[in-house]
Amino acid sequence: MMRSKFTLFHIQSLLLLLPLTLLPSHSATSPFLFLSSDLPLSLSVADYGATATGRHYDTAAIQSAIDDCASAFSLQHRPCQVNFPPGKYLTATLHLKSGVLLNISRNATILGGTKLEDYPEKQEKWYVVVAENAEEVGITGGGEINGQGLEFVKRFDERKNVMVSWNETGACLGDECRPRLVGFIGCKNVRIWDVSFNQPAYWCLHIVRCRNTSIHDISIYGDFNTPNNDGIDIEDSNNTLITRCTIDTGDDAICPKTYTGPIYNLTATSCWIKTKSSAIKFGSASWYAFKGLLFDNITIVESHRGLGLQIRDGGNVSDITFSNINISTRYYDPSWWGRAEPIYITTCPRDNNSTAGSISNLQFINITATSENGVFLSGSKGGVLRNLKFLNVNLTYKRWTNYVDGLVDYRPGCQGLVNHSTAGFMMEHIDGLEVENVNMRWAEEKTQLWNNPLDFRPSTVNNISLLNFHSGLYKQ
């Protein structure tokens, strides 16, 4: 294999001579800066022997460039850039390291391998690109990382594709045994921008136990019929900013989860989302707290569910704001969680060994929705919903698909799918609900389906305030 024209000795020498010329960062949460690409501290995978044919593995060449960049960073703490010229780079797992920026140029694609031997032995390390315990690290360049997810389809199905599962080999347990696309685990100061993530075989972008992460101006595309191809999963991570992102995928689009620790200070703004599941979904992994999260200026298009909270494991959710959001939801097949709810807030124990958790102090401000089902607000005996506020909300209900109506979806766990007549607001186990300037409109041609604006049992719903609440028919 060819080695770089810049040996490690040359890099050390250059570091002694280079001025600290940096590009400005545009991230409020990720203050680190990368060297500009025209400086000598910039390595090309082509110089390391990468073929860029998309047929031969370029793993060794790419990893060598990353390793040399990381060595340079460790010497004088100056970041280094690994460049991908146009072409297709087939690879097994790549390990991104501290101080390294992957610069995937336009018309360049990193292709994830599709064989079990392309990935580490442990399932939790199955990523096409992964950074562990790294800092000052990122991905940019205008190019693409592609997981070749359609190669993992065992049988195509318009309802839900049947996927390859490596549990058949004994490598893992369960049906969701496929590699994720990109992961940052235990990292600090992560910046991801101007790059496309396409066709993940499983989750797409996974942020785990990280601090100070900026994700902006990216696009994510996953096959609409492929299960579990989540867009961005934020797990146990704090100080995260997501902005100006386009996500078009089959499963949950932006999904905060708490497995081993809480999530604080997550902001998502100015995003466009289409999904066959939930556009914004808390949980269902929810063992720890979610607190101080903001979702603003988001467009949700023809999704199976708009804003969803599935708290199943005892974690507490508080001080969350959803504002300036435009939602359209529709029915898809019942094999997917969701029944076209524009807003779905639930707490209930996952199973007999779980507790319900709690949800309090949620605000929904300036929300517009056109949906085939109503808002579902469901606490539980051990997890009452408290202090919910809806301000300046416009809800339009109409049917335009032929899927079966009249079901409430409690999945996962709880009661499963339950027969229930459709209502504008379906509510249970709530203490404190403030509704102000809410306008609910019903399609006239379906009045037999829309005969109940508010559905609740007074014994479980208390302290309701309705101010300027209006419900009525409209003609198309």
TrEMBL record:
GO terms classed as biological process = carbohydrate metabolic process
Pfam families from the entry?
Glyco_hydro_28
The answer to whether UniProt assigns keyword Signal to this entry is: yes
Q: Where is the signal peptide?
A: 1-28
> What keywords are assigned to this protein?
Glycosidase, Hydrolase, Signal
One of the entry's Gene Ontology molecular-function terms is:
polygalacturonase activity
Q: Name the SUPFAM superfamilies on file.
A: Pectin lyase-like (SSF51126)
Q: Which family does it belong to?
A: Belongs to the glycosyl hydrolase 28 family.
Q: What is this protein called?
A: Uncharacterized protein LOC105159714
Q: Which organism is it from?
A: Sesamum indicum
GN (gene name): LOC105159714
